[in-house]
Structures are given as structure tokens and as C-alpha cells.
Design goal:
This protein is mostly helical. It is built from 21 helices and no strands.
Length: 423
Amino acid sequence: MEIAGIIFGILFLMLFLGVPIAISLGIASAATMVITGNFQYLASVPTRMFTQLDSFTLMAVPFFILAGNIMAEGGISDRLIAFFELLLKRLPGRLACISVVASGFFGAISGSNPATVAAIGGITAPKMIQKGYPRDVTAAIAASSGTLGVVIPPSIPMVTYAVTAGVSVTTMFEAGWIPGIMLIVGLCIANMIMCHKYDAPDSTKYPVKEYVLRFKDAILALLMPIIILGGIYSGIFTPTESAAVACVYSLIVSMFVFKEVDRKKLYKILVDSCISSAVVLFVVSMSAPFGWLMTSENIPTILATTIMSIFTNKFVILFVMNLLLLFLGCFLETQSIILLVTPILLPIATTLGLSPIALGLIIIVNTSIGMITPPMAVNLFVSTGICKTTVGAVSRRIVPYLILEFCILLLYMYVPIILGITI
């Protein structure tokens, strides 16, 4: 436990000082090796960093980031929203419900929370404000809807978790659908109750021709997740290959069909995607020496044994696990949390009889909720920028959505049969 105290002490000190998570992981690992006199291990750090990234599965991350950025700029989100506006017009609080459903559908394409908030919220938010929704309410709806981005497969954090935990990416994608649908239904019901005063159902009778035109305009966007996920589940291509297919498909549709992306915009998309990919993969690479050091010193097993000796009830342990993940979600971003806690929580989950897939969903949903929990609330930052309001104002409005999503999390955690997973 002495080495555990050293490595975590240095890590949290670096984070407290505001050092980026990737650098913090590297410094904690190297400093611990020096302090404990294991100088020979330092030479293996670069090799371990490279080996961590030398993964075919991990190649899906930059491809999904690129595909999400192309779709956000390529007019795909506009056509999805136009279609769902007609489909959900009879619901009270319909614009809020449209934001949820469209975010879930876009999440099935992009796999990213901030991209979902920006793409869908950027279109629905102005319409909601014009309709009479307060700006802080609008921002809260956009931010909470954006949490579906990483829960609905395919999902970038699911790929990261699968690589870290050594489980099948396809199985993670298959398991993610039910909690994602539960969140969509829950958020829509909440919006119908809370937002009916801003947005009454549209009783206008549209001709069948209008439905056909909207569907025809959105068909290429609607087909995209079917092609991607259908290809994965049928075994036609792997999750990594599906990410590449998503890039090619979105590029062809955006440039040559919708004609929303030109060469200048494509260059900006590529640059932004490279930067985002580099940040994620740098964190992943720096987690390699950290994870190896913990494993070599048997730290995860020691921590698991300690926690199991303090708490004996399985459900209490699961509840404490959730509180820990929610707390970390307030301060760290999703990829960092997955890489940090997976080696620690996996032995605990195994001891409890919890499958690695179920653990992965618990981690991912918790970290997604963390993206609407200040101070590290990326979804809130994006939505407040769109709605021109403050994080403080939106933080009060986001509370009902936080409570709702946490209750749904507890529901499928304590009733795992809903997921079809044996606990």
C-alpha cells in the first residue's frame, strides 16, 4: 500500500495544481519509479506508451471523432431535426422532446457528447428560445440531451473501455442500447411534464406529401447508423472498420449530396479532428506506464480487498462505486476516468460477480452524467455558449435531469436483467 499511497498522492497533487491529466499520469508513474528505486523501469516507459497505442481497435477513436465532426458540419443534423419535428409534433414540450430524440439518433452516429450538444443544440436551441423557452432551461435541455452521445452506440468511450478492460467492442455496443433507450424515454417524459407550458402540441394537419418529402430529405442521415451498426452486428466489418465506413459515408453525403462541406471547411474539420484525437490518444498512451506500475505492484487487487473488507453488502459497494464515479466526473473528463478507474474497479466487479460489460456501462453512464455536473461540465459549457447564458444559471435548471439520469442508472444497475446481463 506504500507504493499506492505514493503514486496516487503524486497524481492527485498534480491534478490539484491544474496539471493536465496525461502529464499528471506520466509524472506520477515516473516519480514513483524514482522514489522506489526502480530506475530500470524508466527505460521501458516509451515502449509501453507506444504499445498501448499499437491497437487496431483503438484506431476507431480518431475515425469516430472525424465522422462526428463531418456530420456536425455537413447538414446531417439539420435534416434529422426537420424530420423529427414532423414526427413528434403532437407531443407537449415537443421541441424539448425533439432535442432528446435527435440527440439520441445523432449519438448513434457521432459517439461524442460535446459534438451532439453542438450539432443538435445549435439548431434546436434558437427555435426553443424563439418559442418562449427561457435560455437557461433551453441550455439545460440541450446539455442533458447531449449525454446520450456516448451512451447510444457506437461510442468513443465504449471503445476506450473495451480496450482497457479487454472486452469485445461489439458486445459493449450491443449492451449500450437498452440504457440509452431508457434515458431517451425518461428525458422525453420529463420534458413533456416540465416544458408543456412553453410548447403546446402542434395540431396542424400536414399532407402525406410533406411527410414523404421530410423523410426523403432525411433518409441518408437515417440510414447511416443502420449501415454502421448493421455492418458490425452482422460481422461484415469490425467496429474499427465501421468507424472508417462512417467517415467515408458522411464525407460523400456532406460534400456531394448535401453539398454543405467544401474544401475549406473540410480542412478545418480535419485539423479539429487531429487535435481532438491527439488529446485522447495522448491520455491513453500516458495511462500505459501508470496502469503497468499498478498491476506490477498488485495495487488493484489490494484496493479491491480493502474495499471489500470495509463494505460487505454488494449493493452498498455498487452504490459507493457510483458515488465515486460521479465525484470524479465533476473534475475529470470521460476518457481519463475510464483509464484511471477501470484497472481498480474491475477486480471489485469480478469479486461481486458483476460482468465487465455491466461495469463498463456503469462507468460510461456515470461519466456521461459527469459532463453535466459542474465544475467539469463540458456539455454545459457548450450549451451555455449556444444559448448565451451562464453556467451558474443553468446549473440550477439541470438538477432535475441529473436526478432523473442517476435514478435510471440505479434502476438498470440494481435490476441487471433489464440489460440481459447476469450480475
